[in-house]
Predict the structure.
Amino acid sequence: MISSKWLLAAFTLIGCVHAEANEKQDDVDLIKQCIVNAVLTGDQTQTVQQVRAACAETTPAKKVTALDKRMVRERLTQENRNVITPHKRNYILPISYMTNVNSRPFDGLKAITDEQGEPLDNFEAKYQISLKAPIYNGFSDKDQAVYFAFTLQSFWQLYNKDVSSPFRETNYEPEIFWINFLDEEHVFWGDEMAVAVGISHQSNGRSQPNSRSWNRIYANFIWENNGFVFSLKPWYRLPEDDKTDLLDPKGDDNPDIYKYLGYFEFGGAYRYRDHEFGFMWRNNLNGDNRGAIRLDWSFPIWGRLRGYTQYFNGYGESLIDYNTHTQRLGIGVLLTDIL
């Protein structure tokens, strides 16, 4: 159990930070979080002065970018076994409306619905859980690490009582990647740059004929300039054998997926006061010009909970819809943001 002396020291240090700090509120929060983590998970042989000095280094004298702040937040919680680090956004959209509902994979349900057959509702819930953990960070350069990440995204026919409110689709994406935040002298444009290289598997975990999956090797180039953060993520799909039978569990479930999701994804985010705006764009760069765009807006509502609005237009919002053009507008609650 943590001694009362250490708890008292933590509250004393936090009080000093409030009294003395001239930094922006984000920087003050980083120092406070560092102090608490040092008390909970650090070496308790340290003196109060050592903790204070170490935590003061979380906000260096140079300009602190949005990427710097996210990296510091993640480092402060890596040793805390009660905390899981977010990877992508974590959110729930309890209300979303989708056009052009893709009912083809569910044609068999028409037997238990009305004669005109639409088994699926336009209204449904959507949520995403995305987490990561470092599996190796023993590099001499502390700006490098290898991570394991997992993202789950579900589309839930919550309001469709006629077919017992099923989960229409769930996608699972485990990945392993190495990331390196470049030293200041190697940043050739903007205020901050990072490079990631990884491999991912994405599937919907379903049996034939509705099984969908693919494996990719990707690079992700991330940079920030004047508060705008951008990401360019090209990928190479690992080839699979062709199927001889549509119901064969072996082989490529979706050989034409590249025609709809293309070979890259370009995105960005910007934080204005307590509002965060983001976008994602994909395109196959072919004459048929298939792709997708997603627009995001998060805003404060209460405590750490944030409101979240998402608009999607295009192909591949989910794997079951990879070759179907849809639009969706949803609103809900966001737990973790990008910046």
Notes: The two ends are 34 Å apart (CA to CA). The mean pLDDT is 84. The longest helix spans residues 4-20. The chain has two domains: 4-59, 85-336.
